[in-house]
């Protein structure tokens, strides 16, 4: 395979949104789910973790793929947020099997990020992009407008531009970094416009913190709760601004003018409203309940995201919220360190009662558990302690076990610890989330789970 990863710009792509686009996108997605329901073949019988990983990488980063997706039944649609939430470590050298694997990953990441940047240029900043054939794409929001779409795009760019910062023998890494810098230069103006527009949409809450969802829901990784005033959506927006500054896309004074405060004060106010009870409340909108009923696992945010653990009060809020999750039996699959999204099942829309009940609540997302473990390690590193390392190791150990038992890295695990299955969702293997697991395993245990000879 050639090591040249340069790609031409696809000027023929067209992006559409609106009522007609939404109707067509929903029809295409229904076909995708039905096809998965009736046509998905039983998974291969591999059980050794190394064999499972090799199979997953060959599938996730196949040269025939047009875009980086998870492997779920809805994966024929493209979700920009996934680059932040679910596969932020695609280019970690320690997870790359050989030079061909490196080239495939770099090529697919560049193709994917370029397409998303073209969508931003077309002013299509939506939760979901559905391919409609011949370079045509439908931008659609499932349930609410996005809070983390731009975050995902910036995460993809960050992966590319920093690809050569970690020691690697693969030429594709430096080529990918160069390609990322070219994309940043070409589309930086479009990203700036979109980020400043997002900043202008924030509104004050009770005269205090600026929220992205003060009046209407905004989506994040657990968007089908369709709730307002959620911590995770606002943490995503804050992180978008920080990453925009780090990449040189926006100027801090421009953001300060739109927000009416600097980013440090903005974050402090978010902590004040969401952490006033001494832990991070999932949502400000809703009835008061017990502390564990007010918490959701998505508070961990994203890799190198909202939580930097630099401040003692921030660490205290994180620790208090983490301790609530760890201590509450309803948050955990029995006899495991698999943590569920929430202790109480959130309200569901009708489609979820048919297709995916408990998808956002009483199920375990292995990728959220991996990020939970990584934030625990962030806390320990910042505080100079080993408070959570054993728990983080337990999370990763149980995910490894589930991967071997179920024949691959699962997108979801049921409340009973089984493969997540509903009538319209047979249970997907989340191939492209697997490298992130290996990255955090290496951090938690100090040695890699898998080693490659290339």
Protein described:
By secondary structure, the chain is mostly helical. The chain has one domain (14-445): Glycosyltransferase, CATH 1.50.10.10. The protein is 46% helix and 4% strand. The chain is built from 14 helices and seven strands. It has helices at residues 19-39, 49-60, 82-85, 99-121, 149-161, 171-200, 231-246, 252-259, 263-274, 312-327, 350-354, 366-383, 389-406, 434-445, and strands spanning 14-16, 128-131, 136-140, 145-146, 203-204, 210-211, 218-219. The strands form three sheets. The chain has a three-stranded mixed beta sheet with strand order 1-3-2, covered by helices on one side. A two-stranded parallel sheet has the order 4-7. Strand 5 (203-204) and strand 6 (210-211) form a beta hairpin. Helix 4 packs across helix 5, helix 5 (149-161) packs parallel to helix 7 and helix 6 (171-200) crosses helix 7 (231-246). The two termini are 15 Å apart. Residues 1-9 have low confidence and may be disordered.
Parts with pLDDT < 50 across at least 5 consecutive residues = 1-9
For the report, how would you describe the main beta sheet? 3 strands, mixed
CATH topology annotation: Glycosyltransferase
Number of DSSP helices?
14
> How many separate domains?
1
Helix and strand composition category: mainly alpha
Q: Rg, please?
A: 21 Å
CATH class: Mainly Alpha
Total strands: 7
Assembly of the depicted chains: single chain
In which order are the strands of the major sheet placed? 1-3-2
Terminus-to-terminus distance: 15 Å
From the 3D coordinates, which CATH architecture would you assign?
A: Alpha/alpha barrel
The helix fraction, in percent, is: 40-55%
Shape, per Cα inertia axes: globular
Q: Beta-strand percentage?
A: under 5%
């Amino acid at each position: 395979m050639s090591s040249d990863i340069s790609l031409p710009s696809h000027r023929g792509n067209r992006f559409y949104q609106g009522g007609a686009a939404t109707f067509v996108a929903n029809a295409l997605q229904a076909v995708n789910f039905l096809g998965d329901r009736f046509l998905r073949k039983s998974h291969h019988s591999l059980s050794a973790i190394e064999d499972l990983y090799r199979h997953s990488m060959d599938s996730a980063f196949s040269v025939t793929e047009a875009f980086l997706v998870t492997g779920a039944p809805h994966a024929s649609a493209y979700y920009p947020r996934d680059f932040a939430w679910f596969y932020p470590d695609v280019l970690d050298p320690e997870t790359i099997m050989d030079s061909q694997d490196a080239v495939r990953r770099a090529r697919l990441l560049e193709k994917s990020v370029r397409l998303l940047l073209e969508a931003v240029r077309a002013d299509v900043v939506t939760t979901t992009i559905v391919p409609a054939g011949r370079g045509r794409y439908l931008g659609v929001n499932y349930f609410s407008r996005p809070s983390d779409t731009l975050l995902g795009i910036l995460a993809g760019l960050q992966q590319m531009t920093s690809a050569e910062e970690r020691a690697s023998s693969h030429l594709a890494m430096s080529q990918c970094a160069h390609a990322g810098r070219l994309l940043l230069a070409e589309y930086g103006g479009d990203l700036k416009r979109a980020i400043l527009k997002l900043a202008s949409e924030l509104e004050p809450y009770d005269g205090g913190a600026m929220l992205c969802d003060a009046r209407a829901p905004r989506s994040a990784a657990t968007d089908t709760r369709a709730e307002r005033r959620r911590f995770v959506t606002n943490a995503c927006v804050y992180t978008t601004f920080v990453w925009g500054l780090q990449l040189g896309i926006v100027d801090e004074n421009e953001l300060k003018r739109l927000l009416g405060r600097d980013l440090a004060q903005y974050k402090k106010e978010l902590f004040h409203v969401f952490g006033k009870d001494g832990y991070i409340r999932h949502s400000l909108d809703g009835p008061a309940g017990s502390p564990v009923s007010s918490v959701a696992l998505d508070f961990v945010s994203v890799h190198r995201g909202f939580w930097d653990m630099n401040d003692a009060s921030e660490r205290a809020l994180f620790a208090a919220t983490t301790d609530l999750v760890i201590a509450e039996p309803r948050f955990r699959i029995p006899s495991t360190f698999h943590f569920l999204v929430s202790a109480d099942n959130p309200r569901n829309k009708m489609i979820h009662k048919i297709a995916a009940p408990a998808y956002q609540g009483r199920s375990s997302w292995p990728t959220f558990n991996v990020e939970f473990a990584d934030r625990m390690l962030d806390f320990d590193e910042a505080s100079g302690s080993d408070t959570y390392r054993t728990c983080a190791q337990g999370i990763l150990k149980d995910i490894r076990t589930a991967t071997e038992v179920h024949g691959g890295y699962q997108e979801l695990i049921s409340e009973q610890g089984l493969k997540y299955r509903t009538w319209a969702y047979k249970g997907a293997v989340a191939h492209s989330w697997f490298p992130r697991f290996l990255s955090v395993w290496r951090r938690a245990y100090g040695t890699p789970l898998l080693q490659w000879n290339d």
